[in-house]
Amino acid sequence: MKEMIIATKNNGKAKEFKEFFDTYHIKARSLLDLAEPVEDIEETGNTFEENAALKAEQIAKQLNLPVIGDDSGLEIDALDGRPGIYSARYAGEQKSDQANMEKVLEELKGVPKKDRSARFICVLAVAIPGKVTIFKKGFCEGEIAIEPRGENGFGYDPIFIPKNYNQTMAELDPVEKNNISHRHDAFKQLEVWLKEIAR
């Protein structure tokens, strides 16, 4: 495999993917790097896998190239797995990190520390024209804090305390955070697959 399209218009995310694929001498390009614009794919799936596959498969079909799509979010056990696939827009379509965190903390009011278990999940879908889509899934286990802490990160990072840590994701050094993140875990699974196909 010589080339991979990353199904994102997010520069930060694209940079992470490009650096990963660079190790395998695979040229990765985001949707922003393409000469022809690609229309936005609506995430209408009911699972992280469906959403990641929707993006990857539809764009792979349009471009006739291998495409990687991802979908990720936060699952909280005391909320029956919510916000889940609705993590980015949990408090409304305007996608406000602050409003999302406030809604989660409000819903967990009075829930004791031992019952605040949660996990970040990242699903990667690799769609290669003419082949079955490959899925890789990464996790970061932890719990929800009582209040937001820390200035780093984004999304739910200020209220998520990773397992075996006392700090929230937003209080961790970005390098350390990336080393334990759900996306890093998914990348490790993808790495195994890439090594297999490179044999």
Short description:
The protein is an alpha/beta fold and 199 residues long.
Question: What topology does this entry show?
Answer:
Elements (H helix, E strand, L loop, with lengths): L2 E4 L4 H12 L4 E4 L17 H16 L3 E10 L20 H11 L9 E11 L6 E11 L15 E3 L11 H7 L1 H17 L1
Parallel strand pairs: 1-2, 1-3
Antiparallel strand pairs: 3-4, 4-5, 5-6
Characterise the protein shown here.
- There is one protein chain.
- The longest helix is centred in the last third of the chain and has 17 residues.
- Helices cover 32% and strands 22% of the residues.
- The protein has a 6-stranded mixed beta sheet.
- It is built from 5 helices and 6 strands, in the order βαβαβαβββαα.
- With 199 residues, the protein is of the alpha/beta class.
- A hairpin with a 6-residue loop joins strand 4 and strand 5.
- It is globular, with a radius of gyration of 17 Å.
Major beta sheet summary: 6 strands, mixed
Terminal-residue CA separation: 12 Å
Number of strands: 6
Spans where pLDDT lies below 50 across 5 or more residues: none
What is the rounded Rg?
17 Å
> Structural class, from helix and strand content?
alpha/beta
Number of helices: 5
Biggest sheet strand order reads: 2-1-3-4-5-6
Molecular shape: globular
Which percent bin holds the helix content? 25-40%
Helix and strand string, N-terminal first? Answer: EHEHEHEEEHH
Q: Give the overall pLDDT as a whole number.
A: 93
* Beta-strand percent range: 15-25%
